[in-house]
Amino acid sequence: MTRLLVALTLLLAFLVAASLAYGDVSLSWRELYHAFTGTGDPDPQSAMIVHDLRLPRVLLALLVGVALATAGTITQAVMRNPLAEPGVLGINSGAAAAAMAVIVLIQDPPVALLQAAGFFGAAAMALAVYALAWRSGTSSLRIILIGIGLSSLATAGTTFLSAFGDIGDVQRAMVWLAGSVYDANMIKVRLLALWLIIPVTLAFLTVRELDLIRLSDNSAKSLGQPVDRVRGLMIVLVTVLSGAAVAVSGLIGFVGLVAPHIARRLVGASYAWILPVAALVGACLVVAADLIGRIILPPAQIPAGIVTGLVGAPFFAYLLWGRRHGHG
Amino acid sequence: MAMDEEPSAKISGKGVDIAYGQRRVVEKLDLSIPERRFTALIGPNGSGKSTILRAFAALMKPSGGSILLDGRDLTDLSTREVARKVGVLLQGPVAPEGLTVGDLVRLGRYPHRSLFSRWSADDRKACDEALMLTGTTDLSDRALDSLSGGQRQRAWIAMTLAQQGEAILLDEPTTYLDLEHQVELMNLITTLVTKHGKTVVAVLHDINQAARYAEHIVIVKDGRITAAGKPDMVISSGTIADVFNVKTVVIRDPVAGTPLCIPL
Amino acid sequence: MTDRRAGHMTATDGGRLLAFAALLCLLVLAALSAIALGTVAMPPSTVTAAIFQFDGSRDHLLVTTVRLPRIIAALLVGSALAVSGAIMQAITNNPLASPGLLGINAGAAFAVVSVMSLFGAGIGDLYIWLALLGAAIAAIVVYALGSFGAVGQSSLGLVLAGAIVATFLTSLTTAVLIFDQSTLEAVRLWTAGSVTGRTMAQARTVAPYILTGLVAALLLGRHLTTLSLGADASRSLGQNPVVWRGASVAIVILLAGSAVALCGPIGFVGLVVPHIVRMIVGVDFRWVIPFCALGGALLVVVADAAGRLVFGSQSFPVGVTIALVGAPFFLYLARTRLRGEA
Q1: Ranges of H-type helices in chain A
Q2: Are B198 and B36 in contact (CB under 8 A)?
Q3: CB B143 within 8 A of CB B195
Q4: Is B19 helix (H, G, I), strand (E, B) or coil?
Q5: Chains in touch with C (≥3 Cβ pairs < 8 A)
Q6: Are A212 and B110 in contact (CB < 8 Å)?
Q7: What's the CATH number where C297 sits?
Q8: Total of domains in chain C
Q9: Is residue B62 part of a domain?
Q10: Residues B185 and B193 sit within 8 Å (Cβ to Cβ)
Q11: If contacts are CB pairs under 8 Å, which of residues 201-220 in chain A contact chain B?
């Protein structure tokens, strides 16, 4: 297991380095080293490209990947449904509706407003889903169904706006919604990192609860878990993690769905291992997606959210069907 | 089966009502589970035995009356406190794909571990012992979904044992077990009671099995207790006909000397 | 045992038959009213006259060329989506399943968008065939992928394969639309889902497929109930899951593919109507299918009429009003009808 963690960390490090080196202006590895460490005779332009343009972007992608993968792992455990991802709680549709509303209704909205709207849209939806699903306790099925119901309403709002809003606005909204770490700077990175410290730590500390809640309500209760309280806590964690990711980078889909599945294929069914592996896998996915989006069709920049769908999907298919896999 | 002193009640319910929504399943139930004994709950399908078991395991809240565990009301205890004292295994438990037997049994230590506690020697001993008692030590690295029904059942029982609760509640534990393993399980229960001082309650569908191994039998029909006591006192052709609607003749089991009922 | 009886009225076959008849009458009434109402309100007698004793007057023309096709499209699409949604939920055993899960919506959208982007927006009614083709190909790929290998033994394979293919195609579609504003302009109303502007010719094109699919689904009722018990149970009951799952998928392609071809991707109906119907009628698919057909048709007709009347716009995307009408009712049911256990 530890070998796997080391291997994944090395892979991530390699992807980060590649993201710093490649792009519109590609640096050789030596130039990258000099620019990064400030030794030798660094070309000021390379240093700027690495430090001001690419480094924040890569770090943002990494953090977003960790957040999405962690949220996705928790969601699948709590919902006991392999199709579940944070979107089930209405988070994605709430964020999308809020963001679409801001873009279409407000002339040239500042980016900060867009992010705040995305986050609050996500949080409001999650709260509404939980509140409506509460009926002397919660149940996974009821949460899923209420999530579907409320998501439909939010999506209806988004669809309405996209059908009748100004075409330029709508296209801009689609780009944002497609998910991208395009607009990155170190301030955002620091803010996101600070924001994520507590929820990610909490998630890792309470990883045992996931193992239990993944069984049935009765089994978990019989082992002493206060199921409703844990479910509530987990939903809060998912909302915070996912909402933050959406606020910063729009809807990068698929990572929250796929990273836990990949982790499970690699390390088995115990969440103490699944969670860290999924987090690393998620980080690799988003960093790689952003890199590919930048270099594959220059000078066009394909948003990372689209790349995760285009590349992640076949890769996931390969993982599921490519080799004989046994259990245990 | 030593029957020296009258045992005190481990779990007792007074005036218990249990309902599913509007439908009352159990009404005004008074039931005492004797400490350090093997109690069998028997009764026809739909009589409420599983419901009673669930309530006594604090998995369901009674709508009326109270249930006491070691003298304390169940509703006053936290889920964790209950789990440390009572292990329960219901019918048909589901485990996620790929979970191994070892993983499952380790989950049984949850009520004893706090947020920051590391895996201790006590935890490991409890798991090893649980695996050994159920004969599943060799299976600990196998995935649950690759095992037979009987092996899976024994793994779940091992998990319950790893909890090291003083009381163990089992709902139809012999359902998937072949004869060899049924006998093994019954012997295990007997060992747990006599050697380890546990209180075991099992819902059994086999009256003769209950009569042979249990020290205390409770007959449940339509959510009420029709009889409770030692097998000799409770199993008679009259009671069986009343409760199960089957005419039987009750003789002495030639091996164990306990009541054996044979349908006519 | 511990089943929850859904409602006194629908607990017996007689009760269900009565409810079905009532729903049918309600549907006919709703359809007629929907045709009668609008910017030019006309009495129902004119509507029936237009259908049965057509005399070429302006009102009658309005009915036969604008409103009737629209309502017929709504009826067809609503029933097709709801029934295919019920089938999807049966074969995948997953409450999150919908026809979109097979990649049908994604395939249709991709086919339409990519052809329009390459050849321009003036393709006329050809888009129906494109959408149907795209939907069918996507669904077949999903089905093939999902039945392959060890994962394919359970319904999980189909679910994951669908998610993969749908995501892939949607990403491609979004990529095209982000860079091609003129295509976005041309398709965005279609992608929102709409029954406006459907002509009799268009409705007639897809009607045979939808009707065939509905009949097949009705005949399949008993087998669907068995399928919904899960792979193990259905095999032990002597049902070959591969054959029946394949047949079910074919029917879903027919129904949902035609629906999306005619009116664009309309969400919610396929996902939610089956839930509502199951909460009221139970899990016997011999009843679920017909009730879904009526319920889905009713929902779309009412939603479309509401969109026209309340919002006063002729081209209000029906997908939006469907959610506005159906979601509150669905939420109410989800809150009150489910037991407290997962």
Answers
A1: 2-21, 29-37, 44-48, 55-79, 91-105, 111-133, 140-164, 167-178, 186-205, 207-213, 217-222, 227-249, 255-267, 271-295, 304-307, 313-321
A2: yes
A3: no
A4: strand
A5: A, B
A6: yes
A7: 1.10.3470.10
A8: 1
A9: yes
A10: no
A11: 205-206, 208, 211-212, 214-216, 218-219
Neighbours of chain B (3+ CB pairs under 8 A): A, C
Q: How far does the CA of residue C104 sit from the closest CA of chain A (Å)?
A: 16
Q: Please give the pLDDT value at position A164.
A: 78
pTM, two decimals, is 0.80
Q: Does A139 touch chain C (CB under 8 A)?
A: yes
Cβ distance A182 to A303 under 8 Å?
yes
Give yes or no for residue B40 having a pLDDT over 90: yes
How many Å is the Cα radius of gyration of chain B? 18
DSSP, residue by residue, B224-243: EEEEEE-HHHH--HHHHHHH
This complex has an ipTM of 0.84
Judged on CB neighbours under 10 Å (0-12, 13-18, 19+), C336 is exposed
Whether C339 contacts chain B with CB within 8 A:
yes
Compute the distance between CA of residue A207 and CA of residue B120 in angstroms, rounded to an integer: 18
Taking CA atoms, A287 is separated from A48, A178, A197, A281, in Å, by 20, 16, 19, 10
Closest partner CB to B110 (pick from A216, A225, A264): A225
pLDDT at A40: 66
To the nearest whole Å, the CA of B92 is away from the closest chain C CA by 14
Dist CA A306 CA A308 (whole Å): 5
How far apart CA B166 and CA B186 sit, in angstroms, is: 17
CA–CA separation, C30 vs C303, rounded Å?
11
- Contact state of A81 with C96 under an 8 Å Cβ cutoff: yes
CB-CB contact of A203 with A67 (8 Å): no
Position C312 scores a pLDDT of 67
Report yes or no on B3 lying in a domain.
no
Interface check for C323 against chain A (CB to CB < 8 A): the answer is: yes
B98 CB near a chain C CB, below 8 Å?
Answer: no
Closest CA to C248 of C40, C99, C87: C87
B100 at interface of A, judged by CB pairs closer than 8 A: yes
CATH number for position B47: 3.40.50.300
Rg of chain A taking only CA atoms, in angstroms: 20
The H or E element that residue C242 is part of is: helix C241-252
Q: How many domains does chain B have?
A: 1
- Those residues with Cβ within 8 angstroms of residue C242's Cβ, 6 or more apart along the chain or in another chain: C147
Per residue in C230-264, pLDDT (tens digit) is 766 777 777 777 788 888 888 999 899 999 888 88
B107: domain range?
A: 9-263
Phi, psi of C50 (to 5 degrees): -60, -35
SS (H, E, C) C293-324: HHHHHHHHHHHHHHHHHHCCCCCCCHHHHHHH
Closest chain B residue to the Cα of C1, Cα to Cα: B46
Query: Using an 8 Å Cβ cutoff, are A266 and A103 in contact?
Result: no
Q: Which domains does chain A have, with CATH numbers?
A: 2-321 (1.10.3470.10)
pLDDT of residue B118: 82
Residue B4: inside a domain, yes or no?
no
Q: Looking at residue A49, what DSSP letter applies?
A: I
Residue of A nearest to B94 (CA): A215
The answer as to whether B115 is a domain residue is yes
Q: How many CB atoms lie within 10 A of CB A66?
A: 26
Which tens digits make up the pLDDT trace of A200-243? 999 999 999 999 999 988 999 999 999 988 988 898 899 889 88
* Chain B residues within an 8 Å CB radius of C2: 20
Q: Which range marks the domain in which residue C165 is found?
A: 9-23+58-337
Across residues C165-191, what is the average pLDDT? 83
**Interface with chain A: mutation pick from C113, C143, C160, highest number of A CBs within 10 Å:** C160
